[in-house]
Amino acid sequence: xxxxxxxxxxxxxxxxxxxxxxxxxxxxxxxxxxxxxxxxxxxxxxxxxxxxxxxxxxxxxxxxxxxxxxxxxxxx
Length: 76
Fold this sequence. Notes:
Distance between the termini: 12 Å
Order of helices and strands: EEEEHEEH
Shape: globular
Strand order of the largest sheet: 2-1-5-6
Structural class: alpha+beta
Strand content: 25-35%
């Protein structure tokens, strides 16, 4: 489950070689424009929550490097 500001979504992402998470483009765009971004993942002792703070991103640089712009999350 993902929380982007006050919206929640469910995703079936992939762990690549157990080292990093492969995320879809739409959620990545939500991440770079979010105030709050949390991911709930299954852990050994139950659900674990990872919180990210994208507030320091230089959005012009992200646009230039990756051709990605922020996107507001849809309501679920």
